[in-house]
Amino acid sequence: MRTMQDWLDSYSSDHQNPTNQVFHWLCVPPIVWSVIALLWTIPVPTAFLRPGAWAVLAMVLAFYWYWRRSHRLAFALLLAFAVLGLLTNFLYYQLGGASLRYLAIGVFVVAWIGQFIGHQFEGRRPSFLTDLSYLLIGPAWLMAKLLRRLGFKQTT
User: Fold this and answer.
1) 132: domain range?
2) How many domains does the chain have?
């Protein structure tokens, strides 16, 4: 199994251009939120589950994937997931499911356009086109950078 550092190093090699990195800081968090929000709007049997159950399941599975590779990074991403989940829950009850879904679709499309623009500056294809696991690495890469800026040195 590849270590988290192996994943991050590989991802970093595809993201050297400073402009592309800025696009990632601006676009990856909204993409993560939009996926959570879209999953939040999938109906669930209300007798057993609350709205957002599919999103919570996806966050738990992503957390498990991260945890197997880096406990510190997984915990930091779990905190980010919790904040995004609380925001999404608030918006769900303020806007309603249909409006939240349309908002999430709009954010998703605009943010992905930004990602592809960033990769035009990079001159390289997005990493996930070679391995879908990189869709999980983008948020981890940003979180690892944030943790380093906050004084944490290792990703394990």
Assistant:
1) 17-149
2) 1
Domain membership flag for residue 93: yes
* The model's pTM: 0.91
| Residue 6 is assigned to a structural domain of this protein | no
Pairs from 30-33 (Cβ < 8 Å, separation ≥ 24): 30/107, 30/108, 30/110, 30/111, 31/107, 31/108, 31/111, 31/112, 31/115, 31/138, 32/80, 32/84, 32/139, 33/84, 33/87, 33/88, 33/104, 33/107
Task: Decide if 50 is inside a domain.
Answer: yes
For 148, other C-beta atoms within 10 Å of its C-beta total 12
**In one letter, which amino acid is 3?**
T
11-28 burial, b if ≥16 CB within 10 A, otherwise e? beebbebeebbebbeebb
Whether 3 is covered by a domain: the verdict is no
Q: What is the pLDDT of residues 40-65, one digit of tens each?
A: 999 988 777 889 999 999 999 999 99
Query: Is there a contact between 105 and 38 (Cβ–Cβ < 8 Å)?
Result: yes
What is the separation of C-alpha 140 from the centre of its chain, rounded to a whole number of angstroms?
8
